[in-house]
Amino acid sequence: MYKDFYIGKREYSNKPYKKLIINIGLPGAGKSYWSAKEQNKTTDMHIAIESDIATRIICGLDLDDNLYDKEVKETTLGFIDKLLNDPYNGIDTVIYDSRNLHRKQRMKLIERFKGKAQIIYNLFMTPYETCLERIGDRVPEEEWIRMRNSFELPSCIEPYDELHVVLCDKPDNYVDPMYIFTGSRDFMQDTKYHRETLHDHLRRTHKYLQDHDSKIARVGLWHDLGKYYTKTFTNHKGETTEDAHYIGHDNVSAYLYLLDHLYYNRFSFNEVYYETDLISWHMLLYKDEKYINKIKDIILRVNPRMWKDLEDLHEADLASREMDV
Predict the structure, then answer these.
(1) How distant is the alpha carbon of residue 20 from its chain centre?
(2) Please, which residues bridge with residue 20 across strands?
(3) What Rg do the C-alpha atoms of the chain give, in angstroms?
(4) What domains can be seen in the chain, in order of their start residue?
(5) At what angle do helices 269-280 and 304-319 cross, to 10 degrees?
(6) Angle at 5 between CA 7 and CA 156, to 5 degrees
(7) DSSP bridge pairs for 117
(8) d(CA 165, CA 122)
(9) What is the signed CA dihedral for 58, 106, 131, 72, rounded to 10 degrees?
(10) Could you tell me which residues are beta bridge partners of residue 124?
């Protein structure tokens, strides 16, 4: 059972009549199940997926090719091109059923298919626990953690036409993030940039934003909650270090925030998704200046308010630390 939330995006003249639905979600999130159900409702829809045997045969691919081999992916995208470019094939909608976890990858898809079809994002929000139950041992634990931590939720800077969020039913074993927040009282961050507990940092960030009359104060309680999942003493080079690392904690925090607020219907969907985007980007102002300015220019064009809120969140984040440097 799924619930569908919707954000309309762009309106323009000469809108393509064909649609490209880009599925986005972790393994086990329900993408293929949903796609098959949708295809069974109509005859003018085709599912394109790298692992689909019919797609591979049509594309002339070896059925034993690696599932996510670049050549396989490119050939599948070429097949989607043919489906969208042919006005007489009876196919009005193509579903690209793949994980599409990263923003750069999705932006390339939009660049490739814009003007040929309406670009519709289908974001599948499913609890981590449910995903793990469904995939069993099909995905190694290390690979699952890498995908979970690197999963970038769709952002306002991505020029899709529509965004749908497909929400999985809340399972009995759902881990409420507020339990994580309570447990963070004893969660030491073990880094020279944060000598305070995670709970203290979140609480102080929230209070700082409240004291400065910020409209995004509740984001302060969530922005670093993903650290609970991502803590490791191994850096990106695979080296063991004295300080802890939290690579991808911003992505996990955003996922937890969106999922929980959808389950409990907290605030309007547009408001919740806006704040999810803030959490996703809250580490931006710690990046190098060239990258910051690149993203800043895009954000200011799309939503100037968002840049001001990111600056406020960054200020609160810095003010709520106990540092040794």
Answers:
(1) 19
(2) 94, 119
(3) 21
(4) 2-168 (3.40.50.300), 177-319 (no CATH)
(5) 60
(6) 35
(7) 114
(8) 6
(9) 30
(10) 166
Task: Count CA within 13 A, CB hemisphere, residue 143.
Answer: 8
Identify which of 300, 127, 316, 122 has the alpha carbon closest to the alpha carbon of residue 219: 316
Whether the CB-CB separation of 5 and 165 falls below 8 Å is answered with: yes
Chain-wide mean pLDDT for the chain?
A: 87
Q: What is the pLDDT of residues 98-127, one digit of tens each?
A: 899 999 999 999 999 999 999 999 999 999
Structural tokens at position 95? 């579903």
Over the stretch 303-325, which tens digit does the pLDDT of each residue have? 999 999 999 999 999 999 876 54
Residue ranges with strand state E in the chain: 2-8, 19-24, 45-48, 93-96, 118-125, 162-168, 232-234, 240-245
Residue 263 CA: distances (Å) to CA of 26, 31, 129: 18, 19, 15
Q: What are 210's two structure tokens?
A: 């409240």
Residues written for the chain: 325
Distance CA 290, CA 111 (A): 22
